[in-house]
Every structure is written in structure tokens, then in C-alpha cells.
């Protein structure tokens, strides 16, 4: 049971209360959530396509509580003019309730028209307000969860292999008694209303559902799940983790991407202070040859100086990526065609505006000589402030970032042969670039990322001695389900290239379902919660694999990133709403927890599997990691269930094997909620140093076990 002391102010205000603002739909409800033989179900498409999995518990911890009608034949109002089985309109008595917003818990189906319905608010003085319910603004399809300006999904469920959703919309009304509400169906769509409130609330009542908000460090998000640690018997809530500013962090493996500013995809001024407060220590910045040298031989570092100085001032360490082409030396046919069709204009979106697909290596000696001069000028300019220089970005031979005229550098050959050739080309390009960097700064660290981990590509680099040319090999690891098997993957790469060190140079997740990589083929969409869980797992797995640095892509959402002008939701900061996402707070926790962190293979965290749980545990294969934080053991564990779902935590006992009595006051930390709990009473410690934990609830994101002495509470 959740301890009252651990509730945020919003939770305390709503916990255990009825729904005084609710306008009952009992008099007009015409459908049940389940579709059975009575023909009175949700959409009458059968039990594989209804809302029977909907549960009322989704309201727990939310600022508004709705009246959900009890199970039966009439639980909700379904309206349509196109489908005669549903009601064309309905009116309910509002009981002269007063408020400043009407809140609808609703959704839609077959949204073929722009207007799905109308809401008419009649006041006690007989005046009226009327609102159109517009698809794509106030309504989303119940089978296609989307966030719109006035529709925020608050509940998700899986049925028939597809994600279902209900959302909340808010409509401002006059502060006087409301006599009645009338719902009128549109001509084409189906409009489904589950509950209605007349609320007095803030001007933006949906902000609590729009994004995570931190009140007393408590994460608030519309798809939030139960606190797994609060359900542990006899666990004591101690307080919230006190996080550190980047200036206070001496060393940490946590990094963030500050990429694409060569293409002006976000405003860095918007995030400097927020980034400093995160405690993240390392920042990856792209240099942008095109943006620095706009006239031959003239280098203007003004824009990059501002970025580097602002980051350093807040205690962050910058590493620079030497990247991308320049129309002065690497002409691009598509770019030239654009300029011809749009005189005086520059591409406003996509990779073309940054010349990301044009490599000087394929444009002759003149282009390569210009590239080397640029590299020398840049290193000379920043040699007192920057030590690590990365050679290019993802040279995978496809033309996306490594090519000729924005296309693959070779044609008419097999993929295997192309991988061999481009690996050799990248080796030579890296060698020449690294030599130029070291001439200016002999102690520089050369970073490189051969993004394609295809065996042929990597083996070719290994044969050529790539590990002798560079100092740090940077991996870019994106996947929908971050798993511990990445450790084996990294070890394979190490054995082939044999670098002096390895970093994870890019990883992370989107926070919106706009990429197949992060939607599991459209079944489950990425959300801000899944992004937070993914990033926490990414950083934990990388630290456990011995990565000296793990950098998440990226700090901010990116405007007009894709060629079609679409934004990218990869950031841990939402630039449109000027707020951190839940992933920000997760990374803020890890930046503090991981200060002074070292992998500790001599330690061990082992689940104690009970016979009745063996099938669950075999399926989930709990992922366990052991570290030392400033010499003190720190253990991490998570269930590898996909982050795109919110399954119940797995309850299990554990043995923590250590060198003696190194943990005397054990605590467990939830990085997403930033909460700290004492471990359940009854733990024991043997003479050999094994700490027995009788019960721990493990979610599908990392929780951390350590000694109370390693953390501070706020």
C-alpha cells in the first residue's frame, strides 16, 4: 500500500475522494464496454474488438476523477448518425454544477470527417456555449493512440493484438451554473463518451496528462503506473533522491547529445540551464563544416563558440564531432536541384540542409585538402577546451551519412563488397583526419564510430588495424528493447577492433510513436514513459558492459529533422512545450547515482527463484548488474519485458554477494520517480557477506540497491 507521506500534493488532494465534479451519463448510456451476444457492446464487432479490458484503476494518482458507470449493458454513450444502432444525440442534466472547464473522457472510431460531433453547454440562465469536436484536435481513434492539442491519452489497453485508448479533452466554459449538456453526433464518425466532469481547474487542465511533471520530485504522467517499491511489504519511504548539478559531478559515464545544431534544429538557449541541473557530465556536439566555412579558407566559429562556452560554464565536458560535407567542396546534385528550383533559399528540413551525406573522401584531393585544413583550424581553435574529437558520424556506406552526392558511393556491386570497400575508405579517411588532429594536439583522443556492425565491415576494419588508429570506438545502439545481450555484442566488437576504450556514442528512444523502430510494428507506440524506461536501461546496460561513456540522443526534440519536415521526438526535453520529459528526470537520477561508478564483476546479484515462479522468471530472465559507487556496492536489476508496455512488477527474493559487510543500511532507489525506500525488514547478512533480500518488486526499468551512505535525500 502506498504510504501517505510519499504522495505528491496532487495525489494527496485526490486520494480516496469521490467524483463531486462528475456529470452522470447513466440516463443516456447505451453501450457496454464488452461486446457479447446481446448486441449492445462497444462497437458490436465482437469480443476481439471491444473495450472489456478497460479498468477504472487508471485514475489512481491523477488530478481528476471520473464517474465510470458499473459493469452492465449501459456503461457509456456512443453516438453516430451514420450507424443507426447508436444514438444521434443525447442530453444530460448537469445539476447546476459550476466550473471553468468541461472535461470529457472519450474516444472515437471511423473518424472519416473533420467534425465528429458537437457539445452544447446550456447554463441555468439559458445562455449557451457550443464546441465542435474535431478529429485530430479534440479526438483520436480508439485503435490509433495519438496526442493532439486537446486530446491526451490517459489509458491504454491491448485487445485483439492492437492498442486501444481513451483520452481527455478540456473545453473552457463560463463560471456559472451549468444546467445541461447535449452531445450531438457528426455525420460520419462514431463518438464514444465514457465520462464527463464539470471542473474548476487551471487554465491548462491537461498539463498533468500532457507530460511528466515533478512535484516534490514525484513524476506525473498520464500513462503512469503504480509505484513498484511502495507495494513491497514493510518497505519504508525515506524521501526523494537529491540530485547534483553538473558542476558537482566529478566523473560520470552519463552523456547527452547536443547534435544537429549545425542544422539549427533546436534553440540551445532553451536548454542550457536545464542541462546543467541534470547532472549529466558529457556532451557530444557536431562541428558542422558547412556552417563554419561559408567562404573558402575563412572559418567563423562564433556559433560554435557560444555552444561550447555555455556548456563549459555549467560544468559540462564537450567532445566535438568532425562532420559532414560542404557545398564549396562536396557538391550535391539534389542540393543544386533545390537551389535551382528555389533561388536564394536553403533547404529547411532533412539531411540535405546539413550536407550530411557527402564525404570529402569521394570528391577528390581538393576536397580532402580543404577538409584537413578545416580540421586543423578547428582543433587549433578548441585545443585548450576540448580533448576528444570524433571522426565523422555513422559511416555506413548507404549515403545517409557517408556517400557521394548523398548516395551510396558504389553501385553495381554486392552489399558485401560495398561494405569491404567503404570500410577501407573510412579507415583511410580516419587515419588522415586523426593525423591532422594529433599534429595540432598530440594528446587528443580520437573517437570513431563505424556504425554498421556488420561482420564483414568490422572484420575489414580489424584487419586494417583500425584500433591502432583511434583511441575510442563509439557504438551507436538503437533498438526497441534494450537488453543485456548487448554486453556480448560489445565484447564481440572489442575482440575484432581492439580499441583502447569503448563508448556508446548514440542511443536512446523516441517519445512518440513516429518510427517503426520504436513502435514494435505499430502494435505499441513509444511514449514519454517508454522513453524514460528505455534510456534508464540503456545507461545501465552500457555501464555494466564497461562503457566509459554512454551518450543518449538527444537533449532536445529536433524541429524539421526529417526530409518531409517532420520533427523528431528523440529529445529528453520537449522544445514546443518548454519542459523536461520524464526521461530527463530518469537521466538526472542516474547522473547522480553513477558518479564514481565502476563495474564490479566480483560482486553478484542473484534472484532466488521459487518453484511456483519459475516459469515467469525463465520467461523474463531478470537482468542483474553489479557496480561499485565510490567503492560501495551498487546493484541494478530490471525485467527485460518491452518498455512499450507497463506490466506488473515481478516479485522475487535476491542474494547480493559482496566482499564482507559492505552494505549495512540497504536502500532501493527508483530512478524514474526519484524515490528512495529502505529494504523490507527481515533481510539478513551472512558471514560470507551475502545480503538476503526477502522480497523486491522488479519493474521493466532498473531499480538500484545500495547502502544509504552513498546517496543524499532532499
Can you tag this structure with a few keywords?
single chain; 714 residues; alpha+beta; TIM Barrel; Immunoglobulin-like; 8-stranded parallel barrel; 7-stranded antiparallel β-sheet; 33 strands; 21% helix; 26% strand; globular; disordered N terminus
How does this structure look, described?
With 714 residues, the chain is an alpha+beta fold. The chain folds into 3 domains: 4-210; 253-595, TIM Barrel (Alpha-Beta Barrel); 598-710, Immunoglobulin-like (Sandwich), CATH 2.60.40. The chain has 14 helices and 33 strands. Strands 14-15-16-17-18-19-20-21 form an 8-stranded parallel barrel, surrounded by 5 helices. Helix 7 crosses helix 8. The radius of gyration is 28 Å and the shape is globular. The two termini are 23 Å apart. The relative contact order is 0.10. The model is unreliable at 1-17 and 210-224 (pLDDT under 50).
Amino acid at each position: 500500500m502506498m504510504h501517505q507521506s510519499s504522495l505528491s500534493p496532487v495525489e494527496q488532494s485526490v486520494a480516496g475522494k469521490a467524483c463531486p465534479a462528475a456529470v452522470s451519463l447513466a440516463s443516456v448510456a447505451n453501450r457496454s464496454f464488452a461486446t457479447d451476444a446481446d448486441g449492445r457492446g462497444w462497437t458490436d464487432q465482437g469480443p476481439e474488438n471491444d473495450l472489456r479490458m478497460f479498468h477504472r484503476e487508471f485514475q489512481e494518482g491523477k488530478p481528476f476523477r471520473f464517474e465510470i458507470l458499473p459493469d452492465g449493458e449501459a456503461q457509456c454513450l456512443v453516438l453516430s448518425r451514420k450507424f443507426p444502432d447508436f444514438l444521434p444525440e443525447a442530453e444530460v442534466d448537469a445539476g447546476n454544477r459550476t466550473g471553468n472547464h468541461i472535461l470529457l473522457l472519450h474516444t472515437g472510431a471511423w473518424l472519416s470527417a473533420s467534425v465528429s460531433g458537437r457539445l452544447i453547454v446550456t447554463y441555468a440562465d439559458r445562455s449557451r456555449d457550443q464546441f465542435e469536436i474535431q478529429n485530430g484536435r479534440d479526438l483520436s481513434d480508439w485503435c490509433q493512440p495519438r496526442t493532439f492539442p486537446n486530446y491526451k491519452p490517459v489509458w491504454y489497453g491491448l485487445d485483439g493484438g492492437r492498442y486501444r485508448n481513451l483520452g481527455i479533452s478540456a473545453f473552457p466554459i463560463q463560471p456559472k451554473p451549468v444546467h445541461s449538456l447535449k452531445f450531438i453526433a457528426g455525420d460520419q464518425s462514431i463518438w464514444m463518451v465514457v465520462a464527463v466532469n464539470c471542473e474548476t481547474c487551471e487554465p491548462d487542465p491537461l498539463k498533468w496528462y500532457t507530460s511528466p511533471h515533478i512535484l516534490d520530485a514525484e513524476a506525473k504522467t498520464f500513462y503512469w503506473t503504480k509505484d513498484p517499491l511502495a507495494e513491497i511489504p514493510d518497505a519504508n519511504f525515506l524521501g526523494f533522491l537529491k540530485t547534483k548539478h553538473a558542476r558537482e559531478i566529478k566523473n560520470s559515464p552519463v552523456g547527452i547529445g547536443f547534435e544537429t545544431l549545425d542544422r539549427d534544429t533546436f534553440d540551445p538557449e532553451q536548454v542550457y540551464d536545464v542541462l546543467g541541473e541534470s547532472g549529466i557530465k558529457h556532451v557530444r556536439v557536431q562541428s558542422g563544416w558547412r556552417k563554419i566555412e561559408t567562404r573558402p579558407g575563412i572559418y567563423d566559429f562564433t556559433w560554435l563558440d557560444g555552444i561550447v562556452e555555455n556548456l563549459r560554464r555549467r560544468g559540462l565536458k564537450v567532445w566535438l564531432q568532425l562532420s559532414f560535407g560542404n557545398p564549396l567542396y562536396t557538391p550535391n546534385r539534389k542540393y543544386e536541384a533545390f537551389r535551382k528550383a528555389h533561388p536564394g533559399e536553403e533547404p529547411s528540413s532533412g539531411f540535405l540542409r546539413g550536407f550530411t551525406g557527402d564525404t570529402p573522401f569521394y570528391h577528390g584531393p581538393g576536397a580532402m585538402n580543404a577538409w584537413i585544413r578545416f580540421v586543423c583550424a578547428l582543433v587549433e581553435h578548441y585545443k585548450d577546451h576540448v580533448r576528444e574529437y570524433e571522426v565523422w558520424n555513422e559511416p555506413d556506406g548507404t549515403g545517409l551519412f557517408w556517400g557521394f552526392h548523398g548516395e551510396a558511393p558504389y553501385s553495381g556491386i554486392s552489399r558485401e563488397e560495398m561494405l569491404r570497400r567503404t570500410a577501407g575508405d573510412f579507415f583511410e579517411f580516419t587515419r588522415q583526419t586523426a593525423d591532422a588532429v594529433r599534429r595540432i594536439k598530440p594528446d587528443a583522443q580520437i573517437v570513431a564510430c563505424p556504425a554498421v556492425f556488420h561482420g564483414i565491415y568490422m572484420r575489414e576494419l580489424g584487419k586494417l588495424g583500425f584500433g591502432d588508429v583511434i583511441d575510442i570506438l563509439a557504438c551507436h545502439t538503437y533498438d526497441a528493447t534494450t537488453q543485456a545481450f548487448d554486453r556480448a555484442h560489445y565484447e564481440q566488437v572489442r575482440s575484432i577492433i581492439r580499441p583502447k576504450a569503448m563508448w556508446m556514442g548514440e542511443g536512446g528512444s523516441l517519445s512518440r510513436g513516429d518510427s517503426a523502430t520504436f513502435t514494435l510494428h505499430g502494435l505499441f507506440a513509444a511514449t514519454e514513459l517508454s522513453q524514460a524506461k528505455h534510456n534508464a536501461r540503456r545507461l545501465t546496460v552500457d555501464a555494466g558492459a564497461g562503457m566509459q561513456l554512454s551518450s543518449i540522443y538527444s537533449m532536445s526534440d529536433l524541429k524539421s529533422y526529417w526530409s518531409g519536415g517532420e520533427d523528431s521526438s528523440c529529445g529528453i526535453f520537449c522544445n514546443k512545450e518548454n519542459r523536461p520529459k520524464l526521461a530527463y528526470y530518469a537521466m538526472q537520477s542516474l547522473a547522480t547515482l553513477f558518479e564514481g561508478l565502476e563495474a564490479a564483476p566480483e560482486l553478484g546479484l542473484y534472484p532466488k527463484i521459487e518453484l511456483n515462479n519459475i516459469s515467469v522468471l525463465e520467461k523474463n530472465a531478470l537482468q542483474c548488474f553489479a557496480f561499485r559507487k565510490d567503492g560501495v556496492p551498487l546493484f541494478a536489476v530490471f525485467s527485460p519485458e518491452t518498455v512499450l508496455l507497463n506490466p506488473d512488477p515481478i516479485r522475487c527474493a535476491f542474494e547480493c554477494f559482496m566482499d564482507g559487510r559492505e552494505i549495512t543500511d540497504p536502500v532501493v532507489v527508483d530512478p524514474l520517480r526519484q524515490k528512495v525506500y529502505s529494504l523490507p525488514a527481515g533481510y539478513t547478512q551472512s558471514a560470507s557477506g551475502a545480503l538476503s533480500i526477502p522480497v523486491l518488486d522488479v519493474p521493466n526499468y532498473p531499480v538500484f540497491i545500495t547502502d544509504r551512505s552513498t546517496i543524499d535525500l532532499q
